[in-house]
Specification:
- It comes from Roseburia lenta.
- Helix content is 36%, strand content 21%.
- The radius of gyration is 24 Å and the shape is globular.
- Helix 3 runs antiparallel to helix 4, helix 3 packs antiparallel against helix 7 and helix 5 crosses helix 6.
- It is an alpha/beta fold and 533 residues long.
């Protein structure tokens, strides 16, 4: 039994952990890195086609976003996730593929004019569609025997609709071990989804540490705080622009704005309009409605029982097409604009920032974690000018933050979650946090509970039978690579995966009629003749 840490090791995003038990190989999460990549990350140590399963904690792209690339490289195993996570991945991975394709096309138009080599998208819409066929939806608390070596159970992590901590029981001969992967743990007291569940026993625990060095502010009435920001912005004649993740944070903001309207907090401005400018957010909102019984909090269920939609209200407008999105900025009436992405790294939010950052009467309101190095982080930390679509934009708008609106547990809540274990785990691995935070939170766990806690680096490899470290990964700081070399490497990897697939097809043809075998051989030889050099 072996675990190897690949992504989100001394980094906040790109969650990916590799496990071997017997002859089975699986991943827990396969996420995309967002923002700067600090360390050289270890590649998956086996061919993608050799991986039997993936277990996904939740749908956020930093936990699921490289699944289409895994598929492009030959993965054809099963992907287990909650029903809500499967539904959200169905829209988020397709959307991510569209973004990859669009950005590659945009860069290639510029590259062609400049005489530079073209780039290739990380993966295609076809890759996303293909990997979605591999998903296996499961229910919370359902114990699933995946195979003789692996049994899993998903419990609610309270972070996002469908988010999970995953219990994994491993069997190798007469040896058994239990692992718990925390996923992203919610802070609790959320308007739509349930509280995170605590677990009682494990031999090994992997816990996230996004906010492992800080405490959230004391709970406030978010609706009232938001109403105050809206009032001052509207009275100044500006727009309130909210960069928000399309899944989770957007729906929560709609919940608070519904309260503002319903409770008359802006009675003198009650006809204000709210634009949800994200096709993904529109689709995700529908998924929220489809998962009321299993995922919604008691308060949200109560509203629905009373005939109230928790995230709908008069004046809410959906912008789906690009033309609808563009028209928002031609309307000079003060309004709320909620758009993705939450860290301002891609998507329509960048257009709204271009139209509003230079306006002193407008407000940009951040309501979620910002990874260091992202545009959102830079704005939140006082950037005076930014580059958007090749233009320098001076920052004159008011920059506000509601840090208490967080999908992640703070240090105390994370420690409370660790306190749910009734017996000391053999080892606690601290992942999914900033470089220094991973170490400091590991120290905090040891100090409070006496548990052996360690923050692994990418490439660190442990024996789960003995708990011993078999190999240390690289501590090397990542060097920047040009997009063209990265794209070239990715395409060649896809070509190798295609070749491996061809060999599997050839082996499966054994026993076919000689006539068919000869025809197939001629086709392969003709293809080889065409591309040989």
């Amino acid at each position: 039994m072996i675990i190897e840490f690949l992504g989100a090791a001394h980094e906040v995003t790109g969650s990916c952990h590799y496990v071997e038990v017997g002859d089975k190989k699986f991943l827990v999460d396969c996420g995309m890195e967002q923002g700067p990549d600090i360390y050289e990350n270890q590649e998956i140590p086996v061919q993608a086609s050799s991986i039997d399963y993936v277990f996904v904690t939740h749908a956020h792209i930093d936990h699921s976003g490289l699944l289409p690339l895994l598929y492009a490289h030959g993965f054809r195993g099963q992907i287990y996730a909650t029903e809500a996570t499967c539904e959200l991945c169905n829209i988020m991975l397709k959307d991510s593929a569209h973004i990859q394709t669009f950005e590659a096309e945009w860069k290639n138009r510029k590259a062609k004019r400049a005489g530079r080599p073209e780039v290739t998208p990380l993966y295609t819409v076809e890759d996303a569609a293909g990997v979605l066929e591999q998903f296996v939806p499961v229910h919370y608390h359902e114990t699933i025997k995946v195979c003789d070596e692996i049994t899993v159970r998903f419990v609610d992590a309270g972070h996002l609709l469908g988010s999970s901590s995953i219990e994994v029981w491993l069997t190798e001969g007469n040896e058994k071990r239990k692992m718990v992967f925390s996923g992203d743990i919610g802070q609790g007291n959320r308007p739509l989804i349930k509280e995170p569940e605590y677990l009682k026993e494990a031999d090994y625990v992997l816990i996230e540490s996004t906010y492992g060095d800080r405490l959230h502010e004391a709970p406030i009435d978010f609706a009232k705080a938001l109403a105050q920001i809206m009032r001052s912005t509207f009275q100044a004649g500006g727009n309130l622009v909210i960069p928000a993740f399309s899944v989770g944070r957007t729906q929560e903001m709609l919940y608070f704005i519904r309260r503002i309207k319903e409770e008359g907090m802006l009675s003198d401005l009650e006809d204000f309009e709210v634009y949800m400018d994200s096709p993904l957010a529109v689709e995700a909102t529908a998924v929220f409605h489809d998962n009321v019984s299993e995922c919604f909090s008691q308060e949200a269920k109560r509203l629905i029982a009373e005939g109230k939609n928790p995230i709908r209200f008069p004046g809410l407008k959906m912008a789906v097409t690009s033309d609808e999105s563009k028209m928002i900025n031609f309307d000079m009436k003060p309004k709320v604009i909620i758009s993705a992405s939450g860290m301002c790294e891609a998507g329509r939010i960048r257009h709204h920032l271009k139209h509003n950052l230079w306006r002193p009467e407008s407000t940009i309101l951040f309501v979620g974690y910002q990874v260091p190095g992202t545009l959102g982080f830079n704005l939140l930390n006082g950037a005076k000018e930014v580059k958007l679509f090749g233009e320098t934009v001076h920052v004159e708008a008011r920059i506000e933050n509601l840090p208490g609106i967080s999908g992640h547990a703070d240090k105390n809540k994370l420690l409370d979650w660790m306190g749910g274990f009734e017996k000391a785990p053999k080892k606690v691995f601290v992942v999914h946090g900033e470089d220094a935070v991973c170490d400091s939170f590991a120290d905090a766990i040891h100090e409070k509970y006496g548990y052996e806690a360690y923050a692994p680096y990418s490439g660190d490899r442990f024996d789960l039978l003995t708990g011993a470290c078999l190999e240390q990964g690289s501590r090397q700081v990542k060097q920047k690579k040009t997009p063209s070399s990265k794209a070239s490497s990715n395409v060649f990897a896809r070509l190798l995966a295609a070749g491996e697939r061809l060999m599997r097809v050839i082996r499966d043809c054994e026993g076919m009629a000689n006539k068919d075998l000869a025809k197939f051989a001629d086709q392969i030889n003709a293809l080889s003749d065409k591309w040989s050099r």
